[in-house]
Write a structure and sequence with these properties.
Distance between the termini: 23 Å
Number of strands: 6
Order of helices and strands: EEEHEHEE
Structural class: alpha+beta
Strand order of the largest sheet: 1-2-3-6-4-5
Radius of gyration: 14 Å
CATH superfamily: RutC-like
Amino acid sequence: MTDRAEIRTERAPQAIGPYSQGIRAGGFLFTSGQIPLRPSGDLVSGDIRAEAHQALENVRAVLEAGGARMEDVVKATVFLVDLVDFSIVNEVYAEFFRSPPPARSCVQVAALPKGARVEVEAVAVVDPRRSAR
């Protein structure tokens, strides 16, 4: 059986349902979708740029807690309530990922938890020499 470890951090919002912030398994780290909740549980809202920034900071926190970095991300998925926000979210996204950026999907959804307008999840390759924090 593959080693499987739950990733938890106080630097990202706690799970709001029966799921883990992240799971490290088989040399990969999978983050749960991160909406723009501050670690305190308060939702960042009203500005899609600020929402995207917070969601990506949450992804970074989970990755780092699991021994990975943004540079280790090989696949990301972005969920948007309105594709009108695509170009702004793209600008913020580009601030977090160096070239070459990871493969990515971006889809419009009917709704996201807590009224968020953006959610981001990621899959990273984890260097086995780096341990979870």
